[in-house]
Amino acid sequence: MALRCPIVSVLGHVDHGKTSLLDKIRKTRVAAREAGGITQHIGASEIPIDVIKKVCGNLLQMLKADLTIPGLLVIDTPGHEAFTSLRKRGGALADIAILVVDINEGFKPQTIEAVNILRQYKTPFVVAANKIDLIPGWNSKEGPFVLNFNEQNQHPNALTEFEIRLYENIIKPLNEMGFNADLFTRVEDITKTVCIIPVSAKTGEGIPDLLMMIAGLAQKFLEQNLKLDVEGYAKGTVLEVKEEKGLGKTIDAIIYDGIARRGDYVVVGGPNGIVVSKIKALLKPKPLDEMRDPRDKFKPVNEVVAAAGVKIAAPNLENVIAGSPLRIVPEDKIEEAKEEIMKEIEEATIETDEEGILIKADTLGSLEALANELRKIGVKIKKAEVGEVSKKDVIEVASFKQVNPLYGVIIAFNTKILPDAKKEIEKYDIKVFEGNIIYKLVEDYEEWLKAELEKMK
Ligand code: GDP
C-alpha cells in the first residue's frame, strides 16, 4: 500500500530558531543537488526521501527498516497557532512535530505550552536542541553527534559545557514533564521517549540528522497513519484564505489524504455554515526558473495527491476561515462530504459554562488551545467563538458582567476588535485581553484577576 509523506510541524519558544530552522531545511537541496531538489508546495515544503538519504548516508545504516515513505512534508508556518489551527478529525494535522529549544536557554513558557499542546493532541515530537554553535568551545568536528552517544546517553568526546547544557536545559525538563530522552534507535514507545537532535540553524549542523531521525521515526512508528487512500477523495484543512490578483479569494490548503482533481467541488466548513463551490483551478507554486514575471506565481495542475499543499481558486470563498475542514469531491459526493464536515465541526465545539467570560480566536484549533489553557487555571467560559470581536459580543459580555463583575472580560487570541465594538467596550467598561501568544494572554489575565480580587477585599 502506498504511503504518503508524514506532515511535520515546527513549534517552540519565540526566538529559539523556528524560522531559521525552516529556512535551513528548505536549503537542504543545496547539499544534495544531484538527488533533486525540494518541492515547494503552497504552505509547505516537501523533502524527498532521496535527498534525505543523500545528505545523511551513514545515518541510514542505523535504521533497521527500509524507508518507504516518499519524503517529509514540512509546514512552512512555525508556531503553536499554525499547529493548533491545522487540525483534522480526531487530532492534529501534523503527524510529528519538531520542538525547537535553544540549548543555551532551555525550556521557556512557550516550550512548556507547546509540549502541553502536543500532549493534548497526542502528537509525537523530537527536540531540535538549537544554537549549538553558541556553546563556548563547541567544535563541530566532534559530530555527527547522534552516532556517538554511549549507553549512558553521553557523548564520549563531547565538551563538558555541551553535556551540561544538554542535560540541564533539555533532558532534565523533559524528564520533569514525564518523558524519557533517548536515541531514536532505542525508542520503543514514541509517546514516552523523545529524541534530541543537537542542531544549529545557523551553520546547518545536525539538520540532515534531524530530517533522517524524523523520517525514521515516522516510518517505524507511524506507518499506520500514513497509508494513503489512493482511491478516496481529498481531505484537508484550510491554512489560509487569500486574495490573489486575477483569481479573487483563494484557499491555501494542506491535503492529508486522497486525491484532489480539477473540476471537482470544494466543500468547506465556515463560521456561517458549509460552503460548496466548483473548483476553477488547483494551483501549485511555479519554480523560479519557470516564472516569467513575479505576478505569475502559480501553475495549474490536474490533480494533487496527498500529502500536499495546494491553492484552490473557486467562486464564493468569502466566508471561509483558516483551520476549517475541507474536502474535494466529485458532484455526487457533495452530500457525503457535507455530513463529514458537519461532524468534524460539532466535535470541535468547545463546552461552555453556565456563567463566565467570552473568548474569541481566529481558528477553531487556536480557540480550543486557548480554552484548554484557561480551563487549567479554573477560568469559567460562558461563550467561545471563532471570529472578530463585534459590538454584539461586547453587549453580551456586559450582561455576563451583571452576573459577576469578574465576568466582564473578553480574551481575544489572534483576532481583531471591530471599530464599533471599541466604543461599547469603553461604555460598559469591559476588560479586553488581546494578543497572539496564549501563555501571555493567560498570564495577563491571571495578573488582572489577582489585582481585582485584592481590590475587592
Ligand atoms: P523564532 O522566533 O523561533 O522563529 O526564531 P528565529 O528563527 O527568528 O531566530 C531568532 C534569532 O536567533 C535570530 O536572530 C536568528 O538569527 C538566531 N538563531 C536562530 N538559530 C540560530 C542558531 O542555530 N545559532 C545562532 N547563533 N543563532 C541562531
TrEMBL record:
GO terms for molecular function: GTP binding; GTPase activity; translation initiation factor activity. GTP binds at residues 12-19, 76-80, 130-133. GO terms for cellular component: cytoplasm. The keyword GTP-binding applies. Signal peptide: none annotated. It comes from the Archaea. Keywords: GTP-binding, Initiation factor, Nucleotide-binding, Protein biosynthesis. Residues 3-223 form the Tr-type G domain. Belongs to the TRAFAC class translation factor GTPase superfamily. Classic translation factor GTPase family. IF-2 subfamily. Function in general translation initiation by promoting the binding of the formylmethionine-tRNA to ribosomes. Seems to function along with eIF-2. This is Probable translation initiation factor IF-2. It comes from Methanotorris igneus (strain DSM 5666 / JCM 11834 / Kol 5). The lineage of its organism: Archaea, Methanobacteriati, Methanobacteriota, Methanomada group, Methanococci. The chain holds residues 1 to 457 of 597 of the full protein.
